[in-house]
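Shipment paperwork, digital attachment
Item: protein structure file
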Amino acid sequence: MLVKLMPVKLQGLTLTVVSPVFPAGLYCCYAVIIVLTGAVIVLSVALSLSVRSQEQVSIKNTYAPCGRDWIGFGNKCFYFSEDTSNWTFSQNFCMELKTQLARFDNLEELNFLRRYKGTFEYWIGLHRESPQHPWRWMDNTEYNSSVPIRGVEKHAYLNNKWISSARSYADMRWICSMPNSCILQCQIPFASFLSLSRDAF
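Attachment content:
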């Protein structure tokens, strides 16, 4: 604020009285301050909305927890059966869940399956047409042979130390796998499915 000095004489003394002056420039400064304050508020609100939007996207990309009877590892959920059956029944069981016999995409997933399965043998989703053909997953992609598969049969399973092959009618447990983003849509079938005649498979 600008001031104007005005001399005043009282009984031989000279006093200076300070008188406020409000020129147009001062009003202009007030207007600029108000505009800048408004801009800061608008930017703060915009940044807040942007952060909230990013948090919502992050929540959408977060994997849902695996459902009951499923075990999560990485971005997948695995179901370890307690019953035993042949390879065809095992695959049909997984298909009823809209999943497939287990697939591992790296050594970490394979090591997890080995640790969690304990001493039991489990069917997994590797198969081939003959010993001369390559191993393939259930979606028909070729197995990269990162871990050798023992034996000359057409269907693979996990045993205590490695991956082996067996004939499709061998009786053992099985593992289903799926991306855990599907878990909310998938449920374990009723016991009636398990009671189907396994001879049909």
